[in-house]
C-alpha cells in the first residue's frame, strides 16, 4: 500500500430518517495506523456515521471504499468480516466470566470438542502483554473497573485482527489516569498498524491522541484538518457554527453571608465520613474528585436518597431530619441525578407529565382531580422559559435530545422553588451549545438567591462555574479551594492525593 | 430542500398512519371479530345476545379493572380470584345479618387480603409472583376452612340478586355496574395524584423515588385497591350465582390476566389504561360468547383460551420492542 492510498474512504455518505436528514454528503479518508477523530454536537450525525460503518444502518447514497475496493456494509457481520470493530460506551462483555474467555468469546481454542483452557489463557496473556495491558487473564470481568473493561474490549478487537477500531466516547466513564493509560495503549495498537476512529466530546483529548479531525454539523462535514494545524476554540467554532467566546463568562458573586445549608460531620459507614461544609445563598459550591471518591454519595445522602449513619443537616437555620427524598423535597432541596436516563426523568412520560410530577398537589381541582388545563399552562411556561426544544408538551421525553431532557429535569426540580439545588454531573453527555445554555441557567438561579451544589468530573466546568470547591478523596473532605485558588492542576493533585 | 421537506412530510403522514394503526390494533380486531361473528351466526347480533355477552364477562371486567391497576404498577396479583372466593364465602355466610353487613364484610375481606399482599410485596419487598402465589393458596384454604368445604346458598330475597339479575328500564344492572366500575377506576388512573404516581412508579421506580414519591406506599395502594375491587366482584358474583362453592372462582384468574394483557397494558409496567382493558374485555367477550353459540366443546375452548393468552403476550412483547426502537 503506497502512502497515497487510504484504508477507508467514505464518500458523500447520506442517510435519511423520516423527518431528518441525519447525514448529508459526509466524506472522510482514513489511513492505515492513524487515529482519526470525529467530533460534533449531539445530533450532528456522529452516531449515525458509526452505525453505518458498523453495519447497523445502511447508507442511502454515497460509497464506501475499503482497501481500494468499493464495498457495502449491509449488516454487523459484514463489518466484522472487513475488520471493523466498534467499542460502544456500554461494554458488551459478559461480566461473570474471565478476561480470557471474553477475549475469545465464540472462538475459543478447541480440540476434539474440548476447550483448551491452558492455550486460551496463554494466548490471552500474550495478547495483553503485546498491548502492554496490565491485567490477569483469569480475573472475572465483573470485578474490574470500567476502564479495565474497556481495555479488554480493545484486546478483544485487536485479537480479531481488527483493521479499524471505532471508539465511541471511550473516556466518558473513566478517570484521568485511566485516560492516560488508554491513550498509551491506543498509541501501541496504532503502531502495530491498526487504525482508530475516535469519537469524543472532550476536545482536549483530540489534541493528545488524534492525527486528523473531522467536524460534523447538522449531518454535514464542515471541516477536516490536521490536528496540529488547529486549536480547541477553532474546533468549537466549527462545531457550533459560531464563536461562543469564553464558555463560562463572568462569575457574579453575590456577597450574601446567609447560610442556606449546613452539613455537620456527615458519615455513612464505609462510604464517607465527617463531611462538614456550609452553602451560602447565591453560592455555587463544587464537589470535585475522582469518580468513586464519594462525591455523589454525599449529595445523595443529603437529599435523602441514602441513609446517613450520623451527622446533622441544617437548612435555613433550622435543623432538619431527612429520612427520604420526600423529606428532602419538602425541606426545600432539589436534586438532579447524574443518571439522566434512569433517575432524573421518566422516559415514558410526556414533557408535561415530567415537569409537573412534583407539583401534582397544585394542579388538582377542588374535587381532587388533575386539571389538564392548569398542568399544561405550567408545563408550557417552563418549556418557554428554559427554551426546551420540543414539538409540543405532549411529546414523550424519550424522543428529546440529551440537552433538552436535562432541561426538563431541571424544570421539574425548580418547579418547587427550592432553596438548595443539587446537580450531579449536570452536563454529562450534553453537546457544547446546550451545555452553555445550562451553565447560564445555573448561574441565573444562583444570582436569584438559590444555593447550588455541583458535582462534576469536568474540571473546566468546576473551575468556570464554582465560587468554592471541595475536593473529596476516599470519602473524606481533603481540601477546600476559594475562587481565586482554582486551577486544574491544584484540584487534580488534591483528588489523587499529592497535596 | 423543499423536495426533502415534501418527502419528510409524506413519510410523517405515513408514520402517523402506522402509529395509529398499531395503537388501535386491538380496536380494529374487536370490530373485525364483531363483523365476522355477525355474518357467521344470526344468533350473535341480537340485543339479547349482546346483553348476554356482557353479562358473561361482567365479573371478569370488574376484576380486570383491579388487575390493570396492579399491572401498571409493574406487579401482578395471582391471588385475585382467591380473594374473590374468600370474600364471596364471607358474603354468603353473613347474609343472615342483613345485606349491608354482608356487603361491607365482603369488601373488608378483600381489602385485608390486598393489604397482606401489599405488605409483603411493597414493605418486605418479596417477589410479587411468589407472594401472590402463596396467598392464593392461603386465601383459598381459609375459605375452605370457614365454609367447611360446603356449598353455600345465597338468600332468595331480591336484594341479594339485584346487581346480578335485575334490569333497569330493560337494561341489565350488572352492565351498568361494570361501566361505573370502569369509569371510576379510569378516573382514578388518569385524573388523580395517586394514579399519576402509580404510572411513574410502574414505568421507572428509581426516577419516581428521586421525584419524592413514596414508591412502597404507591405499590401497597395498588394491591389494596385490587383487593377492594375483588371484594366488590365477590358481591357481584353472589348476586349472579346463588350457590357458591370454594374453588369455583379459580378459573377467573386466567381470564382476567388474558383480558388485561390482550388490551395492551404492558407487563413491564407504567403503560396501560382502563380503556385498553375495556377493549380487551370486549374481544374476550366476543370470543367467549362465540364459542358458546358455535357449541365448541369445553376442552377446545380451553385450548383456544391458551392460544389467546400466548398471542396476547406476543403482542405485549411486540409493543415492548417497538418502544425500545423509539427510544
Coarse morphology of chain A: globular
User: What is the name of the CATH architecture of chain B?
Assistant: Orthogonal Bundle
Strand order of the largest sheet of chain A: 6-9-10-3-11-12
Shape of chain B: globular
Instruction: Catalogue the unreliable spans of chain A.
Output: none
- Oligomer state equals heterodimer
Please, could you describe this protein's structure?
- Chain A is an alpha/beta fold.
- Chain A has two domains: 8-240, Rossmann fold, CATH 3.40.50; 259-496, Rossmann fold, CATH 3.40.50.300.
- Chain A has helices at 46-53, 76-82, 99-103, 117-130, 146-159, 176-191, 203-209, 232-240, 295-303, 325-330, 340-344, 351-355, 372-385, 402-414, 432-447, 459-465, 488-496; strands at 8-17, 20-30, 35-39, 61-66, 69-71, 84-87, 110-111, 114-115, 164-168, 195-199, 212-217, 220-226, 259-268, 272-280, 284-288, 310-315, 318-320, 333-336, 420-424, 451-455, 468-473, 476-482.
- The radius of gyration of chain A is 25 Å and the shape is globular.
- The model of chain A has no long low-confidence stretch (mean pLDDT 87).
- With 327 residues, chain B is mainly alpha-helical.
- Chain B has a single domain (31-326), classed as ABC transporter involved in vitamin B12 uptake, BtuC, CATH 1.10.3470.
- Chain B contains 14 helices and four strands.
- In chain B, strand 2 and strand 3 (171-172) form a beta hairpin.
- In chain B, helix 3 runs antiparallel to helix 11, helix 3 crosses helix 13 and helix 4 (80-93) runs parallel beside helix 6.
- The longest helix of chain B has 29 residues, at 298-326.
- Chain B is globular and about 65 Å long.
- The chains are: A alpha/beta (499), B mainly alpha (327).
- The interface between A and B is medium-sized, with 35 and 32 residues.
Question: What is the fold's blueprint, element by element?
Answer:
The complex is a heterodimer of chains A (499) and B (327).
Chain A: E1 8-17, E2 20-30, E3 35-39, H1 46-53, E4 61-66, E5 69-71, H2 76-82, E6 84-87, H3 99-103, E7 110-111, E8 114-115, H4 117-130, H5 146-159, E9 164-168, H6 176-191, E10 195-199, H7 203-209, E11 212-217, E12 220-226, H8 232-240, E13 259-268, E14 272-280, E15 284-288, H9 295-303, E16 310-315, E17 318-320, H10 325-330, E18 333-336, H11 340-344, H12 351-355, H13 372-385, H14 402-414, E19 420-424, H15 432-447, E20 451-455, H16 459-465, E21 468-473, E22 476-482, H17 488-496
Helix pairs in contact in A: 5-6
Chain B: H1 2-23, H2 25-40, H3 47-72, H4 80-93, H5 99-123, H6 128-147, E1 152-153, H7 162-165, E2 167-168, E3 171-172, H8 173-191, H9 193-203, H10 205-210, H11 215-240, E4 243-244, H12 252-263, H13 274-293, H14 298-326
Antiparallel strand pairs in B: 1-4, 2-3
Helix pairs in contact in B: 2-13, 3-8, 3-11, 3-12, 3-13, 4-5, 4-6, 4-11, 5-6, 5-11, 8-9, 9-11, 12-13, 12-14
